[in-house]
Each structure stands twice: as structure tokens, then as C-alpha cells.
Design a protein that fits this description.
With 700 residues, the chain is an alpha+beta fold. Helix content is 45%, strand content 22%.
Length: 700
């Protein structure tokens, strides 16, 4: 009847609507579940379990594509069949995880090119031999295959079936499974991308830690820290960077290996001090030292003395890295195969791993080699420094011995007994200690009559006096003090050396001291220091100046101060016109600088008939002293002149001249003041010439 037909249609639509709502709710639930985690394993377990439940099948399996080998590998499956025994399920689980499906199989190709879904009533009739072997093992008959694709990229495939049964899959069921597959493909691909990103991030963090550890050890090597501190730091970094449980470093001296540092190890006898061991008793270390390559040794691979020594140290599975000295440039080693390479093993780094680790990873080898290289550099540097120190000590001792002999032969000499009493002295030493010829006075009496001072003017106590300290056993080598003044009442600087005096029974009975007057040497050294300080100050003055005039102004101010001059001028030099023009002046009254410069033109820019040697000296780049002594032909022109002129030059290019004036403070139109004339000595000329060259360099 029409009414009944209408009611039936309405019921069908209602059922379809309910079914659609249920599918929509299930898909939403699927979406939330799949989005709740970025762990691929967790996502796949949720997928196969819920798909089995909502699609009303007994088994669901997911295979993920390995793009490197073009095969599908089993990833997750769920079975809800009650007619399969638990033992059979365990056997099937082991077999399934060892199986694989080729990506280029015709059936797989058909799946991915048939809109991503295949519903097969009997898989055994259409499967290739490779897939047929899998279907027989797992009792696959009717199956619904769904391709998992993300943005055109195959991710994997999903299969739904009832083990050992034939059945059909309705269009609605296929449509629902397709929707599940689409969501699953997105979730699985996102999880895989996240997992890859996490791997890359962890790898980057490990690389950063490795670089930081290597940098810290390298910084310790270059900072001059003691070798023990460097090796201690290296063991700590080896444990963290190589992901080990402990580390140790042993140094090799000839054929003997001595453990010097260990960290994180638990020796068999913690209170027992390990004795050095011969390299011949450690065959794996011996081979590593010969080859220069790292090696991994398990606890079971050792025996005899080697096994016992490793147990004493607390080593189990060991990565042995030789510390090779001289292996810095591998390319150079390849290019010079015929040359004798001066390389040898200086020790070993032992990195301990637990028995659960079958073999260290490649990154562990690389990191251990980096740290070992820095340790080898530190050991080599320490050995070089030790040789240098030893050589320096020998050279110093021989030099001191020779100096003592020479000083004793040519300068003052005095012999004191252990009570400080003068036994023998020559006449020369009287000038240094204030003695009156031959004397038997005590050191205390001498010191009370004629005290001594340090070079900075501090009064020396009797306990600090060099001869007193020599009697107390302190070697005196080239020590200086200020003794009695000279005839012109200036300070006398004395240098003293001492050696012990022994009798026939090798018992010390006194000391022999040699003195020499180094007053002039000390003055020269002081002048050299002043020159160097002035030049260094000149470099600092011009280093941050930006303008040429500012540079020259600073140079002029500093030169006047260094030489205690009151007046000075800087003039530019024009290469084209070969003339000098005033640039700046200091210390002159108003308009006095121009008047003074005009007075100097007769020698700086002379007429043809009045040529002087001063201008040619400046043009040649030499500092010159302008006074009457330097002009014997016309002394009357320079009677009251005392000027130091220094060319400002660099690379034979003359920029100008700096003139410092110590002349009487008057001009030719004024009366001369009765002040003494101050000349410039050779040290002051050298200082000004050096400062002017610095100025030329800065201007260039």
C-alpha cells in the first residue's frame, strides 16, 4: 500500500541517517585518538584495535613502506578471533614480524593505482608467489586492502580480514575504511616526520655537546693549564660525550704504562695502588700503539695479565684509543710515505662500556678520537716544555758558573765564613761595601756602617741583604742593590753573585761573593726602557686618532712632555712645491710662533747661496740637531739655537717635520736671557725620531 511504502522509505532514511551519524562520530573519535599522540607505535596500536572493533572484522594489520628498500614491513596488527589458540597467535606474531611484502608486486601496484582500495573475495587466486607465501601462513582468504597515502606519497597499507574465512565487504564498509585510512595516513606521516625531526634534533644536540667538549679540552691545552688538570677534564668529557660508564688515561714511558687519571670506574681493589705494567703484557694496547687505530675489546677477549690488569682498574668492555704524537696532518703523511715519520704512542685513553653494549657507535669512535687528539697535543706540549725547561736550567747554570768565574777574576771579591766574618777580600770590593782595604770585620759591622738599598730606594734589612741570604743557603745570582755613592755623589748600582765554599770533606765552610759595578749598564737599561715606553706610548696615542691634525697634535704634545720641552712646531711638506707650511704649534705666545718660524727659514728653506746641511738631512729622512756645533762654517747664525728637527716620514714619503725648541726664550729682536743652554742627547734624538716615524705610519 502507498502508506506502508512511504513509512518503509522513511524508516530506511532514518536508519541511513543514524548510520551516517555513527560513522561520523566514529571518524571524529578516530581523529581525536590519532591526534592524541606523535608516537608511531602508539598510533598504529590504536588504529588496528579500533578499526577491528568498528569495522566488525576479526583482524586488522598495517604495513609501512621502507623507501630505502622498496618493501612493506609489518608494523602493527590486532586479532579478535576467538577460534585461534593463544599459542598459535604467539607463533604467528613472531613469523609476521619477520615477513615483508615487495612494493613492486603486481597486486600492490594494482592497489595503489585502483583508487587506493581492493576488496578481494579470495586472495589466493590473485596473489603473486611472494604474497601467496604470506597469505598461507596467516590464513588470509577474503581481504580488504586500503592504501595509506599522504599527498601522493605512499606511506603504507592496511588489511582487514577474518582469518580463514570468506566474506564480502559492503560499499558502506569500504567507504568507512577508506575514510579511516585517510586519517591514519596523515597521522602516521605526521608521527614519522616528528620522529625524524626528533632524531635530527638529538643528533644536532649530540654534535653540539661533542664540539663544546672538544673545544673546552682544546682551550685547556692552549691556556697553559697543568697536564694533570687537562687529562682530568678529558676523562670527564669522555664519559659524557662517548656515553660511557667510566674513563681512564694512562701514559706510556718507553715500554711502561702508568695509569694517571680515571673517572667513573670501580677498581677491584680500591685501596690497592696500581703498579705500572709493561706494554708487552697488554697485547691489545700493543697492537693499537703500533697501528695508531682505536680498538674495542670485550671482557671475554682478554686473558692473563691483561685480563687481571683490566679487572684491577675496573674496566669491562673497553674502547682503547692510542694517544699518538706527531699524527697531525694525514695528508702530509700520505704525501711523504717514503719519509721516516716521527710518530709514536704517548699513552692510551680507556673508555669503559657496560656488558649490555655490544659495540660502540661510530659517533663514539669519532668523539673519543677528537678528545684523544687534544690529550696527545697536551702531552706533546708538556714534553716539549719540560725539555725546554731542562735545557734552560742547564744553560742558566753554566752561564752562572761562567759569570761567577769572570766576575771573580775581574771585579771585587770577598770570602765570608759561616759566621759572617770576612776572611779574604780584594781592594776592589772596598768600593762596593765601604771597606777600608784588607779587613776582618763581620758582615753586621759592615752593614751597620754602610747600609744598602733596593733599586727603588727601599732600605734593605740585614736579613734581606744578599750576603746574609747566601750564608743561609740561598743561591745569589745577578742580584742588584744600591751601594755607596760614587765620587760625584751619584748612585752606584752593584751586582752580586755567590757560590758556596766547601772543604775537603764536602762540608760548607763559607761563601765566595763577586761584585761588579753596573751603574752605567743600569743607566743604559733605564734609558732603553724609557725609549721603549715612549715609543709604546706613541703607538697608543696615534692608535685611536682619526684625523691627521689630531694625530700630529697628540704626537707633538707627547714629544714635548717626554723631552721636557716647552715649545714645538709641526709643519706640512708639499712634495710639489718642496716647501714647508706651518700646521700647528704649542708653547708660543701670541704671534711668537710665526716670528719664530720666519727666523728658522734661513736653514729650513735657505736661498741658493745659503744652502745648509740641515734641510738635506731632513729630506733624506734623518733627525737632525740644529745648533752652532752642527754648523762650523756659520756658527754665528746658530749661536742661541737649540732645535731638534725630526722628519715625519713613512716608506720614503715625507709628510712634514716636527721641531722641538730648547733655544733661549728670545728672538733676534730681543735681548738674550742668561739661561744655560740645554742640548739634546742621543737617547732623546732616538725617541723623537721613533715617535715621528710612528706618526708617519699613522698618517699613511
Amino acid at each position: 500500500m502507498p502508506g506502508e511504502s512511504s513509512f518503509y522509505a522513511s524508516q530506511q532514511e532514518h536508519q541511513q541517517l543514524l548510520k551516517a551519524l555513527r560513522e561520523s562520530e566514529l571518524l571524529r573519535e578516530f581523529s581525536e585518538l590519532l591526534a592524541s599522540s606523535l608516537d608511531p607505535t602508539h598510533i598504529l596500536q590504536i588504529l588496528v584495535r579500533r578499526t577491528t572493533e568498528v569495522c566488525e572484522v576479526e583482524r586488522c594489520a598495517v604495513w609501512l613502506l621502507d623507501t630505502t628498500r622498496d618493501i612493506f614491513l609489518p608494523s602493527a596488527y590486532h586479532v579478535s578471533s576467538h577460534h585461534l589458540h593463544g599459542k598459535n597467535l604467539q607463533i604467528a606474531d613472531k613469523v609476521w614480524h619477520r615477513s615483508s611484502l615487495p612494493f613492486k608486486d603486481p597486486l600492490v601496484h594494482r592497489l595503489f593505482h585502483n583508487n587506493g582500495m581492493l576488496a578481494l573475495e579470495d586472495l589466493t587466486l590473485e596473489a603473486s608467489p611472494s604474497i601467496h607465501a604470506v597469505t598461507n601462513k596467516f590464513l588470509v582468504r577474503s581481504v580488504l586492502l586500503v592504501a595509506l597515502v599522504r599527498e601522493g606519497r605512499p606511506v603504507g597499507m592496511m588489511s582487514l580480514d577474518n582469518p580463514g574465512q570468506s566474506r564480502t565487504f559492503s560499499p558502506e564498509q569500504q567507504r568507512f575504511v577508506r575514510a579511516i585510512g585517510q586519517q591514519a595516513a596523515v597521522a602516521i606521516d605526521n608521527a614519522q616526520l616528528y620522529q625524524e625531526a626528533q632524531k635530527e634534533r638529538n643528533r644536532a644536540e649530540r654534535l653540539i655537546e661533542r664540539v663544546q667538549s672538544t673545544y673546552q679540552v682544546a682551550t685547556s691545552v692552549n691556556s697553559g693549564k697543568p697536564l694533570s688538570a687537562i687529562l682530568e677534564s678529558a676523562t670527564k668529557h669522555l664519559i659524557s660525550g662517548a656515553e660511557a660508564t667510566g674513563a681512564a688515561i694512562a701514559l706510556l714511558d718507553k715500554d711502561t704504562l702508568t695509569l694517571t687519571h680515571m673517572n667513573g670506574l670501580h677498581p677491584l681493589h680500591s685501596r690497592l695502588k696500581l703498579t705500572p705494567i709493561s706494554l708487552q703484557d697488554l697485547p691489545h694496547c700493543f697492537d693499537a700503539a703500533i697501528s695508531g687505530k682505536s680498538t674495542f675489546v670485550t671482557h671475554e677477549a682478554t686473558e692473563g695479565k691483561e685480563h687481571h690488569w683490566y679487572e684491577q682498574v675496573g674496566l669491562e668492555h673497553i674502547l682503547i684509543v692510542p694517544l699518538m704524537i706527531g699524527v697531525q696532518n694525514h695528508k702530509k703523511r700520505r704525501d711523504n710515505k717514503n719519509e721516516d715519520q716521527q710518530t709514536h704512542c704517548a699513552g692510551f685513553a680507556f673508555i669503559n662500556y657496560p656488558p649490555s653494549l655490544h659495540h660502540p657507535l661510530q659517533r663514539h669512535y669519532a668523539f673519543a678520537l677528537d678528545i684523544a687528539t687534544q690529550c696527545a697535543l697536551a702531552i706533546e706540549k708538556d714534553q716539549i716544555l719540560e725539555k725546554v725547561r731542562h735545557t734552560a736550567n742547564l744553560a742558566t747554570e753554566r752561564a752562572h758558573t761562567l759569570d761567577a768565574v769572570l766576575n771573580a777574576m775581574n771585579e771585587g771579591i770577598i770570602v765570608l765564613n759561616m759566621d759572617g766574618q770576612v776572611i779574604v777580600n780584594n781592594s776592589t770590593v772596598a768600593h762596593f761595601l765601604g771597606l777600608t782595604g784588607k779587613t776582618q770585620e763581620s758582615l753586621l759591622t759592615i752593614f751597620q756602617r754602610q747600609p744598602a738599598y733596593t733599586l727603588d730606594g727601599r732600605l734593605l734589612s740585614l736579613e734581606d741583604f744578599p750576603l746574609t741570604r747566601a750564608l743561609n743557603g740561598t743561591p745569589i745570582r745577578n742580584e742588584r742593590f744600591v751601594g755607596p755613592r760614587t765620587i760625584d755623589n751619584s748612585e752606584r748600582v752593584v751586582e752580586v753573585n755567590s757560590v758556596p765554599l766547601f772543604d775537603d770533606e764536602a762540608q760548607q765552610v763559607g761563601i765566595v761573593c763577586a761584585f761588579r759595578d753596573i751603574t752605567e749598564q743600569f743607566r743604559v737599561e733605564k734609558r732603553i726602557r724609557n725609549v721603549l715606553d715612549a715609543l709604546l706610548h706613541a703607538a697608543e696615542v696615534v692608535s685611536d686618532a682619526g684625523e691627521i691634525k689630531e694625530i700630529l697634535h697628540r704626537i707633538l704634545v707627547m714629544s714635548l712632555k717626554a723631552l721636557s720641552c716647552e715649545r714645538g712646531v709641526v709643519q706640512n711638506y708639499d712634495q710639489g712645491t718642496q716647501s714647508f707650511t706651518p700646521l700647528l704649534s704649542l708653547g708660543f705666545a701670541d704671534s711668537d710662533d710665526l716670528r719664530w718660524l720666519n727666523e728658522q727659514k734661513h736653514w729650513l728653506e735657505p736661498a741658493a747661496e745659503n744652502q745648509t746641511n740641515f734641510r738635506s738631512q731632513i729630506l733624506a729622512g734623518h733627525a737632525t740637531l740644529v745648533n752652532e756645533e752642527q754648523s762650523p762654517d756659520h756658527p754665528e747664525r746658530f749661536r742661541d739655537t737649540m732645535i731638534l728637527a725630526a722628519p715625519i716620514i713613512y716608506n720614503n714619503h715625507l709628510f712634514g717635520v716636527m721641531m722641538l725648541d730648547r733655544s733661549h726664550l728670545h728672538t733676534k729682536n730681543q735681548a738674550a736671557a742668561p739661561s744655560p743652554k740645554r742640548t739634546f742627547n742621543v737617547w732623546e734624538i732616538a725617541v723623537v725620531e721613533g715617535i715621528a716615524q710612528f706618526a708617519g705610519l699613522a698618517i699613511e
